[in-house]
Design goal:
It is a single chain. The protein has 486 residues and is an alpha/beta fold. It folds into three domains: 96 residues, 3-Layer(aba) Sandwich (Udp-n-acetylmuramoylalanyl-d-glutamate--2,6- Diaminopimelate Ligase, Chain: A, domain 1); 220 residues, UDP-N-acetylmuramoyl-L-alanine:D-glutamate ligase (3-Layer(aba) Sandwich), CATH 3.40.1190; 155 residues, Protein-Tyrosine Phosphatase, Chain A (Alpha-Beta Complex). Helices cover 32% and strands 23% of the residues. It contains 16 helices and 26 strands. An eleven-stranded mixed β-sheet has the order 11-10-9-12-8-13-14-15-16-17-18, sandwiched between helices. Strands 19-20-24-21-22-23 form a six-stranded mixed β-sheet, with helices on both faces. The longest helix has 16 residues. The radius of gyration is 24 Å and the shape is globular. It starts with a strand and ends with a helix.
Length: 486
């Protein structure tokens, strides 16, 4: 329990009503969760305006309210705090409520279109193997020490973030690696957090349903680096043209990594196959079971961050050689007749092209490459034809199917995808809307040495249709079908 005036430290206040030396039991921004003695923060959301639920929160026991516009019939005996940005206020309030936990550990954020989950997960594992008490806030899971909590958002709400960080600090965690999404930045979920470092992986076409334009999407990512303190480091991808843009006006210590351009940290793929690749990291050779240029870039980030955090170089290289693939990221399965099936989360045109380029470099061209891909419903429509174009250009056969259609008609989604297929590639394509039937059809096509890429869902263990999530794990379904077929 804390006094309201303590929680308000750092919040931009426009006006107040009542005393701020009152004790607050907890903070809530959902009126349904309010209990007696709580502070309610009214947020203007995409679909719901929390200001409409202020009275409900008060009726449930809220003794103070933070909001952007005071209701006309607001009770005189309830404390009112007016601010210009309730979302930013919530994040600062949450940090103060949990005693600013980000200051008590080394918090490193990773942002970019692709590679966030893989990079943060690999960093978590490497630092854990190096003997540090380590935490992870990722798309897939929240981890620290022996605890694992399934994640629901790439970047959780500020109350969750700070609660997790406080639990980590109390458990003795020294390093925490966190995915930082564009939504999380735009919605001020990371406001008030003190980062030790920030990493930019890359930028490509995604989330334009939310950000409306690529420029807006890019500028949101940049905000993360604009707010890094002087004491932090900013590590950017020299191979991405947006990397230098992220560093404009950034006061943190600046570093770069790259495979193709000059950078502070450099890597080169010397040899590659489906079982792994031989890498050169800053002139040192290391074997990794991960595959592809994109994973070489991810491992280079891991190497660079470890160096910036003063880990010994040879120990870092030794640990990198032991790191395993993250679930659903170029996860391979070999069928009884030696065909290779790859499950990958690639759900953007750039990610899909990277995976297919990697496969193309390994394959002999004597085998058939089949790609199974779909696009999510209620999400960025502009990328649908591009995804299909990429899949058809790099594959011998393509099956278009459902991938979390949500509230949309999956047939319509596939129609939109097919508009992007080049005329000369159209004969390669097939549509099987039911995803399990599509996977089975693809597996039945496989012959000795063939390659099947099942793209889009990766680690996800559900299929979302009309608001209902049903169990669906691509990897497990492939295993099940292969047992039946072979």
């Amino acid at each position: 329990m804390k006094q309201l005036k303590e929680l308000l430290f750092g919040v931009q206040i426009e006006a107040t009503q009542g005393r701020t030396d009152v004790s607050i039991q907890a903070i809530a921004f959902d009126s349904r969760q309010v209990q007696q003695g709580d502070l309610f923060v009214a947020i203007v959301g995409d679909a719901v305006d929390g200001h409409a639920y202020i009275q409900k929160a008060v009726d449930k026991g809220a003794i103070a309210v933070v909001g952007e516009e005071k209701p006309q019939d607001f009770a005189n005996d309830i404390v009112w705090i007016e601010t210009r940005n309730s979302r930013a206020a919530l994040a600062i309030l949450a940090s103060n409520y949990y005693d600013q936990p980000s200051k008590d550990l080394k918090l490193i954020g990773v942002t970019g279109t692709n590679g966030k989950t893989t990079t943060t997960s690999l960093l978590y594992r490497l630092f854990e193997l190096a003997g540090f008490a380590t935490g992870l806030l990722s798309t897939i899971v929240v981890k620290y020490l022996s605890k694992e909590i399934p994640a629901t958002h790439t970047t959780p709400d500020p109350l969750q973030i700070n609660a997790y960080l406080r639990a980590m600090v109390d458990a003795g965690v020294e390093f925490c690696f966190m995915e930082v999404s564009s939504h999380g930045i735009a919605q001020d979920r990371i406001k008030g957090l003190v980062f030790t470092g920030g990493v930019f992986t890359n930028l490509s076409h995604d989330h334009l349903d939310y950000h409306k334009s690529f420029t807006a999407y890019r500028d949101v990512k940049k905000q993360f680096f604009d707010h890094l303190p002087k004491s932090a480091f900013a590590l950017i991808n020299a191979d991405d043209k947006n990397g230098k843009f992220m560093l404009q006006n950034c006061v943190a210590k600046q570093y770069s990594f790259g495979l193709n351009n000059y950078a502070d940290y450099q890597a080169k793929v010397l040899e590659t196959q489906f079982s792994g690749m031989l890498l050169q990291l800053n002139q040192q050779e290391v074997w990794s079971t991960l595959v592809g240029q994109f994973n070489a870039s991810n491992l280079l980030v891991v190497f660079a961050v470890a160096h910036l955090m003063d880990l010994e170089e040879m120990e870092t290289l030794s640990l990198i050689s032991t790191l395993k693939n993250v679930k659903g990221r170029f996860q391979t399965f070999t069928t009884p007749h030696k065909a290779t099936v790859i499950v990958d989360y690639a759900h953007t045109p750039d990610a899909l092209e990277n995976v297919l380029k990697t496969i193309s470099k390994i394959r002999t061209k004597n085998e058939t490459l089949i790609t199974l891909v779909g696009c999510g419903g209620n999400r960025d429509q502009a990328k649908r034809p591009i995804m299909a174009k990429v899949a058809a250009a790099y594959s011998d056969k393509v099956i278009f199917t459902a991938d979390n259609p949500r509230d949309e008609d999956p047939e319509k989604i596939i129609d939109e995808m097919e508009t992007g297929v080049a005329p000369e590639d159209y004969k390669k394509t097939l549509r099987i809307t039911h995803r399990k039937a599509a996977i089975k059809a693809a597996c039945m096509e496989l012959k000795d040495g063939d390659v099947l890429l099942v793209a889009g869902k990766g680690h996800e263990n559900y299929q979302e249709i009309k608001g209902v999530r049903t169990p669906f794990d691509d990897y497990l379904i492939i295993e099940e079908i292969c047992k039946q077929l072979f």
